[in-house]
């Protein structure tokens, strides 16, 4: 295949060819190692099968029809021994051990081709499954200062026909070679024989600034055209590829018909392996106008996209059929009404919380009433206490809470939270350990192992950050003081009632006659009467 690379100076045409040679060098090194290990195992198996004589001859057929010719080649016993040598080749010369590097022979490709033909015959005639060997291609070029270790120089007269079969040849600045120049009117045999270069597996790269500078034979035979356009002096170019050579690669009609059109960024790691120029005079040209235009369009686009998420958007309203983004004339009034509703709900929640606190304080009064009845206090005083409790501000719940059926209570509105669930302690029951909260409910997420540790070492109890001990003590003291005052008041009322009964009995004395049977001691009351 003939590849033609064109570009203006500094466009990266030579760098593109170096990149192709570099990749081929890496593939050759991999194939050299593969063939080395494969040949060792293959030759051992062939000797074991007694087929070593098969390696001495090969039959090659060339020609067409009645003019077809068959040639038989005979080889020496050591003809393929070059495959027994392992080649340690660096892809790029480092300058320190260059004299120790041994390159593979130029005939490597041709002899591997003959060996593969023999392997095919052995597999067919002896029913074997030997693998084919991979090709290793010799490379020739005139690129200045190229440091690839496998590359060899071109023949003195640039005659590619003197190179071995399967060679990969790159001609840099092809327009400066007389036989390849457009100014050379004659057709040299070297150029004419390019028409049959595929018969021996040759590949070529011709590098020039423009297709019009090279011979028309090269333009007609090229099956791959790479054209590079360097933009703004950056280290990258626009890469355009065609299946045929284009005499006007910059024409828009040809660019539109390209097979590939993309950005080729220069591989900087390859700068050091060849000499492109004596000094780098590249000047970058920044397209400020295009940058400003793109930035402005980007800002407009961001503004337009952000408008799609606005509360009122006519475009969204039209697309969604009035479901979203439409302007509501009553939006301000609805928003104000919603704010008022939120304020009223928050106020109601605060009032309910205050009401629950008053219920707690008034709940102690029935207990005082029961204690007073037990001590014999006056029912009228109890009525006064109950009327005082009724006069206190109380917020009635929406649903009556039955303490005997606590699971049936379902509040209509969310009750105000008066307490938070906290850890209270651990309990051991039937060999199981579990934690409970302040009302005795099991905490299922608590670790049983932590409960066992706490029961074994009670002094290791976690600190309660949520309980207000001081407030509880004050409430207990207030409750005790209220209980003591109520008890004193009930005691005073009981004593006053007893004295009133005594006075009433003294005002209305009653005579009790007690008959004493004979032979019985005198009554205690009789003795006291005799003393008086």
UniProtKB/TrEMBL annotation:
Transmembrane segments: none annotated. Residues 160-278 form the Zona occludens toxin N-terminal domain. It comes from the Bacteria. Residues 337-356 have a biased composition (Basic and acidic residues). Pfam families: Zot. InterPro entries: P-loop_NTPase (IPR027417), Zot_N (IPR008900). Residues 337-389 are annotated as: Disordered. This is Zona occludens toxin N-terminal domain-containing protein.
